[in-house]
Structure formats: structure tokens, C-alpha cells
Amino acid sequence: MDPVSLIRPNIRALKPYRSARDDHHSGILLDANENSLGPVLPHPDALHRYPDPHHTALRARVAAFRGCRPEQVFCGSGSDEAIDLLFRLFCEPGTDRVVVCPPTYGMYSVAANIHDVQVRTWPLTPDFQLDWSTFEAATAGATPKILFLCSPNNPTANDLRRADLERAVATFPGIVVVDEAYIDFSEQASFIRELDRHPNLVVTQTLSKAFGLAGIRLGFAFAHPSVIAHMMKVKAPYNLNRMTLELAEAAFGHTDTLARNVDLLKRERDRLMAAFAAFPAVRKVHVSHANYFLAIVDQAERVYRDLAAAGVVVRYRGNEPGCADGLRITVGSPEENDILLQRFAEVTA
Ligand SMILES: *Cc1c(COP(=O)(O)O)cnc(C)c1O
User: Fold this and answer.
1) Of 205, 233, 253, which residue constitutes the final position of a domain?
2) Separation of 199 CA from ligand 1 center, angstroms?
3) pLDDT (tens digit, 9 = 90+) per residue, 185-201?
4) Which of 2, 163, 166, 216 sits a CA distance of 20 to 30 A from 176?
5) How far is CA 30 from CA 39, 127, 227, in A?
6) What is the secondary structure of 156-187 as a DSSP string?
7) What stretches in the chain show pLDDT beneath 70?
8) Domain identity same for 287 and 153
9) What is the pLDDT of residues 128-175, one digit of tens each?
10) Are 63 and 126 in a shared domain?
11) Domain span including residue 64
12) Which of 80, 150, 208 to mutate to test the pocket of ligand 1 (most atoms within 8 A of CB)?
């Protein structure tokens, strides 16, 4: 499959904005109406200069870390920007449709609604895996442009089975997005390694979770070079600021801390899950391959409110399909987790 054939004709024909720094970026820079006197506040970096629109250094850094090529990497303001751009690339407003697998991350449907793109649902099984018995029905009619899969899935926290992901990527006739926001907590290998075999595959990742950098807003899409080239063409020229680029590059020099933090969060997760399983008010604790877990709790909505009133904020997910009475609980620091357990015991006593 040639993924370019799925791209909207106006995007294929688009001549991108050429920014001042596309041709020259050293010398006496009097080409971009910047302020050569510098920023109004003291800062060590060249904040009076526009950032690199091509993200050359960061893409090389990420590609080396994840085992792919720089031309397979897109960097955006969170994964949210990558998701938004995928709609702009592939989906004709008012005409095209996408498929999502509830219960899952809400952003795919919100982005679809923003772009006036129809959402078909392909619900997960009761144990939150892909359900091939309903695949035909869910994808019947006009071929959907994008299938969104999330593994580990949010809010359920489980990995989708690898064989199912492979089957989806191999058989779905459009773009398959595998959202790997939580992949560094999982024992599963990233699908980035499958990019060369599947031109219709897009993998998204983020620095917001395992890297602990939600505040800098940095997300990635990994895909066929021609898809990435079109994303680069459509994005705002200076979508990432200098501080974000600098901190994101630096983050890949601290992978020892990444590994240590992931390890601690997984141990704390297992401790919390065991403690929750023993609470009388907890009916089920779903398996987790991430830094959060889904617990099914008697009177979940009341417990959510009482916990918040006691100063501990979790997420009520009871309105999601298959998640009745579900609370999604993020693993905190060891001290925060102790307080969570104490407050949960009090509000469910
Ligand atoms: C948190 C999360 C993201 C990350 O979004 P950013 O915009 O990169 O912060 C992406 N996908 C899922 C499923 C998430 O839970």
C-alpha cells in the first residue's frame, strides 16, 4: 500500500510555507525581523532567534534512541498535535470516517469531531482486547481512513495482544495508528520496529508520561517517510519552541533516570494494585501494563467525590463502555500512594 494515495489531494498538492531559515541559518541574520538586541529578559539561550523548523537535532536523537531513521520521525506539541495533523492529512471533513475502539483515549473522537469526521466504534471485548468477531460490521461501508489503537490502552491500562495489533496493521485498508504513550512501562516491544514492513503504520509516543515532561509539550509520530514529509509540510513552521526542543534533546541523555523512575513506578503500581484488590469495596482490579490502573469499586462515583474532598484526585471512568464503577488511578510517588491507600480505606470504610 502507498500511504500517499490516502492523503487528501489538497494536502498532496500543498506548497509549504518556506520559513526564513530554510536556506541560510548562520551569519549576520537580518532575514526574519527578529530582534538582534536579544530578549527583554536575561536567558542564556538564543531566545530572540526562531527555533529550527526541521527539528534536525531532536529527530536524530529520537531516531537513535528508538531504532529508526530521522526521516521516520515527526515532533509536535504533544501527541495531540500529531493526532490533529493525521486528520488534516487523511480525512476529508464531512465525508471521511475513522474507527476507534472504546473504551479508549477520548482525544481521537474529539479530534474527529473538530474535523467533522465521522467516528465508527469497534468496541473492545470485556477483557479489553480487539474483537475480530465484530470487525466486519464495524468497518462495513465506505472504507475508514484511520483506525486508532492504543496499547497500553487508556483508561484500561492493558496491552493489546501483539498478534492482534499485527493482524490489524496487516489487514486494515487504511492508516493504523498505534498510540504508545505508555510503551516504556510495558514489557511489549514498540511497533516502531515494524515501520519498514508496514507503510500504513503510524506509531505515536510522548515525553509526557515515562519521561515526566508533560509540561514541555513534546510528542512524536513515527511513520513512513512520505507520511512524515507531509506532516512536516502541514504543521506550523515553528510548532516547537527553543526551550522545548532543548529540554527534549537533553532528556535522551538521562535514560538512566528514565529506567529508574519507570522501575519505581511499576513496583509502586504492583503494591497499590495488591492493596486495592484486598479492599472490601473493590470488586476488580484490571491488569495494568502502565503507570495507572483501573479498579472497579462499589459506589465509584461517590468514592471519587469523597476522595477528592479528602485531597486525593483520581479519575472517574464509570461512564466509559465496559468500565461501570471504574476509577482510573495514576501511580504517584511512594508518599502519595501511602496517603491514597489511607484515604481510600477511610472513604470506603
Ligand atoms: C497521555 C496520553 C497521551 C499524551 O498526550 P500528549 O499530548 O503527548 O501529552 C497520548 N495518548 C494517550 C492514550 C495518553 O493517555
Assistant:
1) 253
2) 23
3) 999 999 999 999 999 99
4) 216
5) 16, 60, 33
6) T-PPPPHHHHHHHHHH-SSEEEEE-TTGGGSS
7) none
8) no
9) 999 999 999 999 888 999 999 999 999 999 999 999 999 999 999 999
10) yes
11) 3-253
12) 208
